[in-house]
Amino acid sequence: MSEHANMMLVVRDEQIVSIFRATLEVERRVRLTVALTAQDALRMAHEIKPDLIVCAPEITGMNVFAFCQQVKQDPATADTMLVLIIPAGANDQRFAGLTFGVDEYLPHPLEPAEILTKLHGMLRFKRIHDELRADREQLKEMHDHLRASFDQLLQLMVRMVDMRIPGADERGRRIAELALQISARFGIPEPHLRDLEIACRLYELGRIVSAEDVHAALPSARAVDAWHYMTGTQAIFSKVPGLEGAAELAGAVYENWDGTGHPNHIRQGQIPLRSRILRVLVDLFTELNAPDKPSQERVLEDLQDHVGTRYDPMVLVHLRAVMQSSADADVQGKRQVVPVSELAVGMVLAEDLFTNAGIKLLARGTRITHATLELILRRHSLEPIVQGAAVLRESKAA
User: Fold this and answer.
1) Distance from C-alpha of 124 to C-alpha of 117, rounded to nearest angstrom
2) Best-predicted range by mean pLDDT among 86-90, 123-127, 159-163?
3) Mean pLDDT of all residues in the chain?
4) Is 146 a residue whose pLDDT tops 90?
C-alpha cells in the first residue's frame, strides 16, 4: 500500500460511518472522506481523486449503479476503485455491478476484519495498477521522443535530396498528398499509410547516390530506365531501422502490371498496391516536368495508353477521380523549383531569391532578363545557390 491513501465513503447511515471510522483508527495511512449525497460525492471525487470509493446500496440523489458509471466515465476518477456494500447473498446486485464498473463488494452486516482485508487487497492492487500506468506513460514519452527523432531524420533526408535536386521536396510533398487521397479511395488502412508517405517524400533519394550525373536523372530528362535509381532508394531505406516498409514499396515501384517491369518482373496483384499508386504518380510528375511542359490532360492520356501494361487500371481511375474532385485542379501548383542552371530569360520568380549566406539577390515577381540571369549565374559560381530558384510555372522562357 502507498504511504497514504484517500478513501471516500458515500453513505448516510451513521452506524456504517462509525464502523468505518473505528476500523480505520488502526490504519492511519488511510484518509477517510464522507459524502452524504451522490452529487456531493461526484464533486468531491473530482477534486480529491480518491483511491477508493465505498458506496452503500442506496445513496441519496442517484441510483448507485448510475453513480458508479459516472465515476468510471470521468477521466479524473476513471482509475478509482469502487466497492459496493451489499446484503449477503445478493447475487443479482453483484452481477449488475460488473456492468457499471464495480470492482469489489463488502457484505452487510459489516465486519472490521473484512473491511481491512478488502481495503489492503484493493489498495495493493491499485498501487500495482498505478505503477503499470506510470510505466506505460514513460514508455509513451520514450516512444514519442523516438518518433520525433525519427521524423527529424526523415526531414533531414528530405532536405539533403532537395539541396541536391532542387524541387524534390515540393514534388515529393505533392505526390504524397495525391497518394494518400488515392489510398483513401482504395480503403488502405491507416497503419500502412506512413510507409507510403515516406516513400513518396523520398523516392528520389536514390538519385543523389547514382553513378550518373544527378541532373541528367532529373524528372525532366524522361529517363527510360529510371528503375535503377529507385533500387538505390530501396537500398538506402533498407539500411535504416524503421524504413523497411518504405524500402519494400520503393523496390517494387517500377514493376509493370503485365510483368515486364524491373527488377523482379512480378505482375498485377504481386506488386504492392501502394507501389502501384506511387508508380503512376512518379510517372505523372515525370511527364509534367518534361521540357515541352505538356498539359495535365495530355499526360493523363499518355498514362492511359499504358493501362494494363505498366499501370493498374483502377489506380488510373482513382487518380482521375481525385484530380477532378480537387478544388485546385493543378496538381503541380503554380510554382516550381528549378536548379539555377535551368533558369532562363523570361521566367518570373515566385519567391525572393537568396544566396546561401542569406543575401537577397532578386525580389519575388522579378522577370529574369539577360542582365539578371548573368548576375545570378555569376553569384552562383562564387557561392552555389543549392536550393535552386522558385519560379511561376506558367512563365515561359524567352
Assistant:
1) 11
2) 159-163
3) 85
4) no
Please give the Cα distance from 61 to 39 (Å, whole number). 7
Return the residue matching grid coordinates 451513521. 14
Q: Cβ distance 159 to 87 under 8 Å?
A: no
Among 3.30.1490, 1.20.1250, 3.40.190, 3.90.105, what is the CATH number of 334-398? 3.90.105
More confident of the two residues 366 and 125: 366
Q: Which residue has the cell 456531493?
A: 40
Cell numbers describing residue 391: 519560379
- What value does the CA radius of gyration of the chain take, rounded to a whole number of Å? 33
Quick one: which of 66, 64, 71 has its CA closest to 50? Answer: 71
Q: What is the pLDDT of residues 308-364, one digit of tens each?
A: 999 999 998 889 888 877 645 566 667 777 888 889 999 898 888 887 767 778 888
Residue type, 161: V
Query: What is the tens place of the pLDDT at every residue in 166-211?
Result: 889 999 999 999 999 999 988 899 989 999 999 999 999 998 876 4
Say what the pTM is: 0.58
Three-class secondary structure assignment of the chain: CCCCEEEEEECCCHHHHHHHHHHHHHCCCEEEEEECEHHHHHHHHHHHCCCEEEECCCEECECHHHHHHHHHHCCCCCCCEEEEEEECCCHHHHHHHHHCCCCEEEEECCCHHHHHHHHHHHHHHHHHHHHHHHHHHHHHHHHHHHHHHHHHHHHHHHHHHHHHCCCHHHHHHHHHHHHHHHHHHHCCCHHHHHHHHHHHHCHHHHHHHCCCCHHHHCHHHCCCCCHHHHHHHHHHHHCCCCCHHHHHHHHCCCCCCCCCCCCCCCCHHHCCHHHHHHHHHHHHHHHHCCCCCCCHHHHHHHHHCCECCCECHHHHHHHHHHHHHCCCCCCCCCEEEECHHHCCCCCEECCCEECCCCCEEECCCCECCHHHHHHHHHHHHHCCCCCCEEEECCCCCC
pLDDT for residue 197: 95
Quickly tell me which residue has 442517484 as its cell. 62
- Domain 5-135 in this protein, CATH class: alpha beta
pLDDT tops 50 at residue 217:
no
The superfamily in CATH containing domain 171-333 is: Hypothetical protein af1432 (1.10.3210.10)
**CA dihedral for 244, 250, 253, 254, sign (positive or negative):** negative
